[in-house]
Design brief:
Helix content: 10-25%
Structural class: mainly beta
CATH topology of the largest domain: Fumarylacetoacetate hydrolase, domain 2
Number of helices: 5
Number of strands: 19
Shape: globular
CATH superfamily of the largest domain: Fumarylacetoacetase-like, C-terminal domain
Mean pLDDT: 96
Low-confidence stretches: none
Bound molecules: zinc ion
Radius of gyration: 18 Å
Largest sheet: 12 strands, mixed
CATH architecture of the largest domain: Alpha-Beta Complex
């Protein structure tokens, strides 16, 4: 199954994705901190209110996530391009719910940053609370997957040795288009790519993750309880703009797409903020 958060005529809905249509679910208005797999599976489908995806405004998956834990340097090739050692413990940094935008919203270049970069990533959305989750049990805690562009202000990321300010920028990070449930997709070696103005700039597959999704769930839940609606961003492959020669940053008018086989694609236009 796949589900979408969407708005129609000023109201929020959760819909089951049925091809190019959405079927609203009774009793749910948002995938987020109150959402469990059972709630999604058992909610009544209001088939009579089926609506074309094209007629609604899609919203971010889990737009009010209590925690967004992002993983840095989780693909070997990206570590090599960053001139770093293979890690034995993942780099982690936060984003906030205020960082998230809709899967088709514009990526707005803030006036302060001149190095806005793309990072295509798999997002894992948690559906069951847990602390010190063992890797073998991690699958029970996954509500589903989505596609994310971990948009990063590189000049702010590297102002200090902490990355937060370059990563947790307000209204920077598209997440969607849908929540795809684990039973729907085999991610073992699913392809992941980022395309900028029609040119492929990142291309890998999920078998190249250094820390697997179960390992990440175990590692994060060791220090903090994971809750439904929480999001883990699993890191980006090589090819980010900052590490290219010459460097490549997002510019007004660009169009960037992140796609993961079986999970979907998000495409965002880049615009300059007018202040
Ligand atoms: Zn990232």
């Amino acid at each position: 199954m796949a589900y979408a958060n969407y708005e129609l005529r000023g109201r929020n809905y959760v819909g089951e994705v049925d091809g190019k249509h959405l079927i609203p679910l009774t009793g749910l208005d948002e995938i987020g901190p109150a959402t469990t797999a059972d709630a999604l599976a058992s909610a009544e489908r209001r088939s009579a209110e089926r609506v074309p995806v094209a007629d609604v405004r899609l919203r971010a998956v889990s737009p009010r996530a209590g925690k967004i834990v992002c993983i840095g340097l989780n693909y070997t090739a990206h570590i090599e391009e960053s001139n770093r050692e293979l890690p034995t413990y993942p780099v982690m940094f936060p984003k906030y719910a205020s960082s998230l935008i809709s899967p088709d919203a514009d990526i707005v270049l803030p006036p302060e940053s001149y190095q806005v970069d793309y990072e295509g990533e798999l997002a894992v959305i948690i559906g069951k609370a847990g602390r010190r989750i063992r890797e073998e049990e991690a699958a029970d805690h996954i509500l589903g997957y989505a596609v994310c562009n971990d948009v990063t202000m590189r000049d702010y990321q590297y102002k200090t040795h902490q990355w937060m300010q370059g990563k947790a920028w307000d209204n920077s990070t598209p997440l969607g288009p849908y929540l795809v449930t684990p039973g729907e997709v085999d991610l073992t070696d699913a392809a992941i790519s980022t395309t900028l103005n029609g040119e492929v700039v990142q291309e890998s597959d999920l078998s190249h993750l250094i820390f697997s999704v179960p390992t990440l769930i175990a590692t994060v839940s060791e220090f903090t309880e994971l809750q439904p609606g929480d999001v883990i961003l699993t890191g980006t492959p090589s090819g980010v703009g900052y590490r290219r020669d010459p460097q490549l940053f997002l510019r007004d008018g660009d169009v960037v797409t992140v796609e993961i086989e079986g999970v979907g694609a998000i495409t965002n236009k880049v615009t300059a903020e007018r202040v």
